[in-house]
Structure formats: C-alpha cells, structure tokens
UniProtKB/TrEMBL annotation:
Keywords noted in UniProt: Methyltransferase, Transferase
Domain of life from the UniProt record: Bacteria
Pfam family, one: Methyltransf_21
Gene Ontology terms describing biological process: methylation
Domain Methyltransferase FkbM span(s) in chain numbering: 51-217
GO molecular function, one term: methyltransferase activity
Protein name per Swiss-Prot or TrEMBL: FkbM family methyltransferase
UniProt key word Phosphoprotein: no
Length: 236
C-alpha cells in the first residue's frame, strides 16, 4: 500500500512539474516561443501583431500563442475558404480577406492542392507543380492592398510590434514596401527559404542582408524562417 501511495505521489508531483514548465507552441518550428522570449526581454507583455498569409487561426500559426495570451492584432488571409476560420476563432482580432501587394488592385490568386502553398505568384504556383505532388486547384481574383494602407485603416497608422510574413513568393516585395525610417515593427518573422520537397531549398541571403541593413539583428533562424529584432531596442 505504501509503495502504491509513493507511486501516486510521484506521479502527481511529476504532472505538477510538467504543467508548470511545459511550453506550448503553434508555430512550424517553435518560432512563436522565440518571439515571445524577445518581447519578454523587452518588457512587452502583449505585443500587437500583423500576420500576413495567416492561413489558419492555430495550425502552424506564429500569432496564435500571443492571441491566447491576450494580444490582439491583424490577420491577413486572401483565401476566402481559409478566412472563414478566422471569423469564428479569432473574434477579437481584425481579420481581413485580402492580399498584400505594392498597390491597391485585384490579382490572380493560385489555390494549391496544399493550401499552405497558396500564392499570388504565378511563377511559384507552377514551381509547385514541377515538384510533382501539387496541383493548381483554381485561380481566384482577390483584392490586394498595400501594407501601409492596411496599417492606416486598421492600426491607426501605427505599425504593429510583431510582423509575421508567409506570403509564398512575394515576401520580399512586402518587406521592401516598408519605410523602415518612419514606421516599422520591433520583431519580424519571415520565411527565408525557397520551397523544396527534397529539403534542398535555397536560403534568401539577400533578403536577410536587406533586413539587417534596415536596422535589424538576425536573432534566430529555424532554417525555414528568420527572426529579426530591431537592433537599437535590443542593444540599448
């Protein structure tokens, strides 16, 4: 009987420790925990965010953890079908069913058989087909707006503190539309590797260098995504 009680106590104690120290991540490779650590060290408890190419409220989301912890932000998801989940699950956020581009217009949006690969880039869409396992299911006309236009309308002209970008082929276009001298995020998480089924994706070193030159420190890299923090704030 004593041995049974000891085992029960040990199990209860073990479960308590697990509950106290476990960390939940929704990102593809733990990016949200890295970003959370950065903001905690900057004494920012509930950072605002803008998630471009948000895809899903929780699945491989870089912002779900922050939402659950009390942050609010803007989710940009151009796929009309995927967008419905944000209306249901992220009611406190601003959810916008558009794409981001370098001007306000309407563009072809390629719906891929794996929706994580949906893209406004015709080149990227046909590259996915060349990989052999993906098809273009449909091409939809979707409204596109500039990032500055969205921030002016939905964030009172103030850039959210955390920028997450997964825009499949147009990430660089979005980054280069930002005026980093006037209005910018504190932390950026952006996909910096080209898609490859074989694991031979190429790292976009020029994009990484560009962001660093705009005043950011490359804090972490998960191979798929690079995470940057505003250097002047981190090294104060």
């Amino acid at each position: 009987m004593k041995n049974i009680l000891k085992r029960i106590k040990k199990k209860v104690f073990s479960n308590t420790l697990e509950s106290e120290f476990q960390k939940i991540s929704y990102s593809q490779s733990g990016e949200d925990l890295i970003v959370k650590y950065i903001f905690e060290n900057l004494n920012i408890k509930n950072p605002t965010y803008i998630d471009i190419g948000a895809h899903h409220p929780y699945y491989i989301s870089n912002t779900a953890l922050f939402y659950q912890n009390g942050s609010i932000g803007i989710n940009i998801e151009p796929d009309p079908t995927l967008f419905k989940a944000f209306i249901k699950e992220r009611k406190k956020d601003v959810n916008v069913n558009i794409g981001i581009g370098n001007k306000n217009e309407e563009l072809d949006f390629y719906i891929i058989s794996s929706t994580t690969l949906n893209t406004f880039s015709k080149e990227e869409a046909y590259n996915y087909q060349k990989e052999g396992n993906y098809t273009i299911k449909s091409i939809e006309k979707i409204k596109v707006r500039t990032l500055s236009n969205v921030i002016n309308e939905f964030s009172n002209g103030i850039f959210p503190q955390f920028l997450s970008i997964d825009a499949e082929g147009i990430d660089e276009l979005i980054i280069k539309s930002i005026d980093f001298d006037k209005n910018f995020p504190i932390v950026i998480c952006i996909e910096t590797i080209s898609f490859s089924n074989s694991g031979n994706g190429l790292k976009n070193k020029e994009l990484i260098k560009y962001i660093e030159q705009k005043g950011y420190l490359l804090y972490a890299d998960t191979n798929i995504n690079s995470i940057f923090v505003r250097e002047s704030l981190w090294r104060r």
